[in-house]
Amino acid sequence: VSGAENSPLLLTFLLAAERYALPAMVVREIVHYRPPEPVPGAPPWVLGLITTRGEVVPVVDLAWVLGLPPRPVTPLSCLIVLELRAQREPLVMALLADEAEQTLPTPEDEPAPPDEMLGERVKFLRGIWWRQFEPLLLLDPARVVEELTDAELGD
Amino acid sequence: MNLDLTVVYQQFQMEAEEQLSAMEEGILSLEHHPQPAEALQTLFRLAHSLKGNALMLGLGEISQIAERVEDVLDGLREGRFVATADLGEILLRTLQSLRRATRQVVASPAASSPVLELLEGQGNTENSPQPSAFAEPSAPSTLRVPIAQLDRLMNLAGELSIAREALAQLLRRYQKDTALQSLSSELERLVSDLREHARRVRVVPIAPVLRMYARVARDAALSYGKEVALVSAGEDTSLDAAIVEQLRDPLTQMIRNAVAHGIEPPEERAALGKPRQGTITIEISRVAGGVLISVADDGRGFSVEKIRARAKARGLDAENLSEQELLRFVFEPGFSTADEVTSLSGRGVGMDLVRDRIEGLRGSVHIESQQGKGSAVTLRLPLSLLLVEGFLLGVGASQYLVPRDSVLACVELPDALRGAPRGTLLYQEREVPFFDLRGLFRIEALPAARQSVVLVRHGRDAAGLVVDGLYEEIQGVVKPLGPLLRTPRWFSGAMLLADGRIALILEPSALLREGLSSGGGGR
C-alpha cells in the first residue's frame, strides 16, 4: 500500500508532438472530443462548454495556455476532464489534448527542473523526465488554474 | 415569553461558529501581510454580522465584545493600530472567549476580555459567567440538512428529468410498443413529482423570519431613542431556504438603517406634523418569476445633497448627477451618509454588504427616496437559486435563456430595422433603445428572416434585445459557470436542454450596460 502511495499514477498525453504527464489523481475522465458550446466574450483560452455527468464544464485550450499554436481536431483528439480546487471551491475543467496515451507509475527518479528552452511553458511545468532522448513534461494543473483564475481578463 | 427560541439559538450558535472560524483564519493571515485591506474588510463584516446576530437575540454582551473587535479592526483599517503579533494574539483570545460564550449562550460572556482591557486600559472586571438564561437546547425534533445536500438532490432531480425527456424522444421512434410508451409516461409523472418535492423541501415560509425583525426594529429604536412600529405584509409567502438564509443579514441591515437614518426622533416628527411613531413596512410580494421584498419607512428620506457632498469629498464628479444616480452611491463600500458612527449602523459597511449579497443571489437592489417623506429599499430576487424559468431564444446557431423575471414583452422587429446593430423602437408609446445580440456576441451568421425583440427591464424603463428566434418557455436547473468564466458577466449560468445541448442564461442588466453603450460590439 505504501508503495502505491509513493508512486502515484500519471496520465500521459500528446500535445503538439510532445508528451505531457498529469497526476492521474486529478483526472476524472477522458472523453472523445465534441464541439463545445461557445461562450461569447469568454477569455481566448476557453473554447466553450461541454456537459458531462450532468455538469457544465469549460473546455480549456491547453495549447493556447502553453503558448503553442492552435491544434487541429482529429479523430484522436480528446478532452481530459480534471477536478481540482481553486480558492477552496471545487473546479472542474476539460483540457483539449491531441491524444490520451496511458497511465504509468511516477518514475522513481526526481524530474529535472524545466529549462528555459521551453519558453513560457516553464511556469506550468513541475519538471522533466528524459526517456530515450524524449522529454516527458510534468504538467502542474494547479498552476494552470491559478494562472487562469488570476487573470481577470485573458486579453 | 413563551416563544421557543431553541432553534433560533442553535442557528445563532452554528453561524457564530462559522463566523468565528473564518475570523480566526483571517486574523492568522493578517500576521503574514501587514496591510491586506480586503482581509480587514472581510473580518470587519464578519464581526459586524456576529454583532448584529447577537443583538437580534438580545445577547448584549456578546454583541458588545463583537463591537469592540469591530472597533479594533476599524482601527487597523484606518491605520490607528498596527497589526502586530501581540494584537493578533489578543484578538484570537477574544474570539476564543466569544466562542465559549456563544457555545454556552450565556448572558455574560468572558468578563475579562483582552480587547475590552486594551481599549479601556483597565482589566479589573471580575465577574464570573452568569448561568445560562436559556435552557440547554433539547434534541431537535426536525432534521437539519445542509443546504448543499438539498442542492445535490435538486440537481439530480433536474438531470433525471432531462434524461427522461431524451428517453421519451427515443421511444417515440418505437411507437407501436404501447407498454414502453405507458411506462415512459409513468416515469414522466414520477420524475416531475420528485422534482416538485425536491423543490418544496427547500421552500420555507418567510413569516417566522419576519417575526425576528420586530425585535431588530425594537432594539434599534430603543438605542436611538426613536419610536418605531414594524408592519409586515405578505407574510404567507414562501421562499427558497437558501435565499431566506442569505436574506437575514441584508434585511437586518436595512431595518437598522431605516431606524437609524430614516425615522426622525419623536420630537422632530411631532414638529413636522408626522405621528411621533415612525412606521417601517416590510412587504413581500410575488411577481412573475421572482419575489420583491421592500423595506420602506416614513422618515426623512435620503439626503441627496449630503450624498452629493460626500461624493465630491471623495473626488468624484457628482455635480450633474441625477437623484437616481446619486442614490446608487449608497451602495459603495465605505460610503455612509450618517454623520456619526453609531452602535448599530452607519459605518458604511451596511449597504455594500446588502448589494453584494443580493447580486450574488441573482437579484437586484433598488432605492427610492422622497426627501421628508421616507425611503424604500427594494430587493428583487429569483424564487429559487437553483431553478430558472425563462424563454429560450436563438442567436445564430446558439440558444440562450432569458429569465422570465426580467422580460416585459416580446415583439416582432419591424422589417425596416432588421439587421440594424442598434436603434430605438416604439413600445407602449415610448422610445425604447435596442441592440442586436449578434453584435455583442460577435456572431457572424446572417440575421434570421424574421427577428424578434425581447423587451427587458432596464431600471424603471425597458430596453430591447434583438434575437433570431423565440422558442418555448422552459424551466431548468442553473449550472454555475465557475471561476474560469467570471468574465464576461453577461451570463449568470448555463442550463442543459432536453436534447443535451447547453443554453447560457442571460444576465440582462450586464448585457444592457455594454450593449447599449455607444462603443458597442466590443468589450
Descriptive overview:
The complex is a heterodimer of chains A (155) and B (523). A five-stranded mixed beta sheet of chain A has the order 8-1-2-10-9, with no helix packed on it. In chain A, strands 3-6-7-5-4 form a five-stranded mixed beta sheet. Chain A is 12% helix and 45% strand. Chain A is globular and about 40 Å long. Chain A has three helices and ten strands. The termini of chain A are far apart. With 523 residues, chain B is of the alpha+beta class. In chain B, a hairpin with a 2-residue loop joins strand 8 (387-395) and strand 9 (398-403). The termini of chain B are far apart. The interface between A and B is medium-sized, with 27 and 28 residues.
Relevant terms:
heterodimer, A: 155 residues, mainly beta, five-stranded mixed β-sheet, 12% helix, 45% strand, globular, B: 523 residues
Summarize the helices and strands and which ones pair or pack:
The complex is a heterodimer of chains A (155) and B (523).
Chain A lengths: L1 H5 L2 E7 L2 E6 L3 E6 L13 E7 L2 E6 L1 H4 L12 E9 L2 E9 L1 E7 L19 E7 L2 E6 L1 H10 L5
Parallel strand pairs in A: 2-10, 5-7
Antiparallel strand pairs in A: 1-2, 1-8, 3-6, 4-5, 6-7, 9-10
Chain B lengths: L5 H27 L4 H20 L3 H18 L7 H20 L9 H7 L26 H25 L6 H24 L1 E3 L1 H18 L3 E6 L4 E3 H22 L3 H6 L6 E10 L2 E8 L6 H10 L9 H5 L22 H11 L3 E7 L3 E9 L4 E9 L2 E6 L3 E6 L9 E6 L2 E7 H4 L11 E7 L2 E7 L1 E9 L13 E6 L5 E5 L1 H8 L8
Parallel strand pairs in B: 2-4, 9-17, 12-14
Antiparallel strand pairs in B: 1-3, 4-5, 5-7, 6-7, 8-9, 8-15, 10-13, 11-12, 13-14, 16-17
